[in-house]
Amino acid sequence: METTYVMVKPDGVQRGLVGEIIGRFEQKGLKLVGLKAVVPSEETARTHYAVHAERPFFPGLIKFVTSGPVVCMAWAGKDAISVARNLIGPTNGREAAPGTIRGDYGMDIGYNMIHGSDAPETAEFELNLWFPEGIMQWDQTISRWFYE
Ligand code: DAT
Ligand code: MG
What we know:
The protein is an alpha+beta fold. It contains seven helices and four strands. The chain has a four-stranded antiparallel sheet.
């Protein structure tokens, strides 16, 4: 079992896509183990995107992601990191396949509505960053109908 960090970015919240996005993760069979909305501080945003600090788009990315509420989520399941990335789709919405969140709703690279951790190390780092209070442990009784 893995847990991944997923975040609806300010454009997804502004566009009213939070319910649609959460529904896709629920229907897929992932287990919700963390959920909250925050307006990110500049420090948290910079830490989250630190690997991109030297990229030309970094200042704009930080301005965007701190511009309003984001919805922070933790989702658990078998291979949850890659399962979530597949639901999300590639970075550029114009190139993302229909059926993915970015492919169905996005037309841009920066305004791509949603973030998902890309590896176990980044998932752990991001979960600690956004959920320092910890995530939930609960028994999802329906999971026996998702896994043989
Ligand atoms: P992803 O979010 O698919 O993991 P990433 O980690 O390469 O993509 O980049 C993080 C975010 O930075 C991405 O969601 C949008 C923004 N970004 C990446 N490349 C960009 C570019 N060339 N121009 C503008 N924004 C970019
Ligand atoms: Mg990334």
